[in-house]
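User: Can you model how protoporphyrin IX containing FE sits in this protein?
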Amino acid sequence: MTWQHFNWLAPLAIALWLLAAWSAFRHKKAVDVFMIAGILVLGAFIAGFWLNVQRPPMRTMGETRLWYSFFLSGAGYLAYRRWGYPWLLAFSCLMAGMFAAINLFKPEIHSIALMPALQSYFFVPHVTVYMLSYSILAVATLASLLQLRKIGRGKSDPKLYDFLDNLVHIGLGFLMLGLISGAAWAKEAWGHYWSWDPKETWAFITAAAYLLYLHLRLRPTVSPRLTLWTLPLAFALLMITWLGVSLLPSAAGSVHIYS
Amino acid sequence: MDKKLLWRSPWGYRESLIIVAALTVGGWLMQLIAGPFNFYLLHRPVNYAVGGLIILLAFAAVPLRNRPLVKWLSGGPLAVSLLAALLVLSLIMGLTPQMQKQPPHGDFFVRLGFTQVTDSWAFVLVYGLTLLSLAMVIARRLFRPGRRVLFFLNHAGLWLVLAAGGFGAADRERHVMHVTEGQVEWRVYAEDKQVLELPLAIRLDDFDMTEYPARLAVIDRTSGRPLPESNPHFFQIDMEQPEGRLAGWEVTLQEYLPQAVTAGAEGYQASPMPAATQAVRVIARETSGSGAGGGAIRQGWVSGGNRFLPVSPLMLDDHHVLVMTQPEPRSFTSKVKVFTQAGQEREAVIEVNKPLSIGGWMIYQFGYDNQSGRMSNYSSFELVYDPWLYPALAGMLMWALGSLGLIYRGRGAGGEK
Ligand code: HEM
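Assistant: Here's the modeled complex, given as structure tokens:
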């Protein structure tokens, strides 16, 4: 298979994912059919393309996006099967669809080269789990703000606490997978698994902030407000890790600044 | 909230925070007096002894688990305070540029160790207490029934990574070795320019690099800038999509030679010579032209050249030139034979992301002569010796499984329901 086939397979996969996302809110029964079909369509293209080019399709930005779509839809679906959050499925489908759409509408960037250090099996899983983690932790942040408002008005909502804590555990799980896959990749490419590069330092800061919340919740003797406020704070740190590190004076010479 | 007196047992958050803060401040004072922490102090076998002592203490404390001190050391409040201290110290690290060499007369913050946090006493002390506290809670939980697999994977995995990363820092060696093609090398330069002899030698048989197909651009003849100036267009060479538009010109690729040398007046021919460059034969049509029968048509070879072959642009008109950009490297490969003092020999191809592991050393592709590209007659390697690598990798694996457990169990991971 070549990129020519992608022109009709990708719209098919995107349509199936959108149907799945819609069903998650309306007809839960139909989710599995649409979702699995969408993943299979993209999976078939990747397999066919792989056979055609006779190497793992991981060399260009376009090829990398195929994997983003594949893992986001796959991991999003598994997480949905486990936890049943329709917004999580919808988010994964939208992101997966977006990456497929970029490949459709910007074919000229298929062949932008990936620099040698990025040609690693750890690259795509590393990025994918971070995307899932960011989205889940963003929702956890909103939930913490909601809970803070409820406390301000009198009393907290135990159900909301359950939801919130659940999201923090799941999101932190993905976040730490991102950290560990990054370390494994660094070992392979740069000689050491942890060098306190600015991006690594900030990833550590973020993980420590979420761990702080998680361990504070084990013994609810600290002020609930203080505990809850660690979540918006942690999310702010997460945003710095993601977007802001390259702007910091400490980042000159970081291996994570690519362009 | 209870109004327990400070320091009356059991110690809670207040006592823990005060102690951890005192430890941090004490570390800073120590730094002012004694200078940075010298990791060489932990050199083998001291690190084995300290690590063993922590494990021993942790297990020896299990029968005493109801003593206040043991309870506190292995409890949640201390864990929270340590995490907070690590957060603060790593924030300092994340906001201050970290440097390898400290200026001799730095300001107050430099002397506190802010510019190299990982080597500062405060960091080492907090890190050390974290290792002890973690070991104690792991040991305590091991002897308590109940759900503990997930707890063990996360905490023991993290403990292994922290221990191997921290103690390993004392034993780790890292060198860069330059090897000339056809030669055997076993010497490297240490930081003080002293020659060091390593217990392994590398013979470089061949260095090669491959490039991605280059891109084409139309540039302004006088300024040399790619057009349109506000948002330059680049056309990626790809024979599967041979047509493209560039700043008012329609470009069609006719023949692409990834490795070409000049032939005749203006032409190129394929050749696998190391000095070869990329060349492409194109037809360019002016799309907005006013000339007879539409726009002007130009055809010919375009090449970016290299150190040995000239640049070959295609003149389009008085103002515009079609040029090839410098290609991006796709891979660097060194064909080597490695010999160890113990008598091992191995032939291998080393690439970025494909290091060679031999006799406890990992050998990475590091650099080459950028000026000469494929013609480089030397290759440099990064050699890393880390006897603590396998414990660290085992820890990462456990920790990763623990993370999967958190994703699967969610809030239920906390045991209490
Ligand atoms: C990878 C990082 C970590 C993760 C994912 C993690 C996760 C957890 C979870 C989920 C629990 C509740 C589990 C249960 O009670 O079975 C817990 C408890 C606990 N953790 Fe951690 N933790 C991490 C790091 C740490 C660190 C660095 C410390 C200490 C310095 C620590 C100390 C504790 C303590 C004291 C408890 C309470 C255990 C008890 O009293 O039974 N944890 N942790």
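A couple of observations from the model: Chain B has a mean pLDDT of 88. The first strand of chain B starts at residue 173 and ends at 180.
User: Helpful, thanks.
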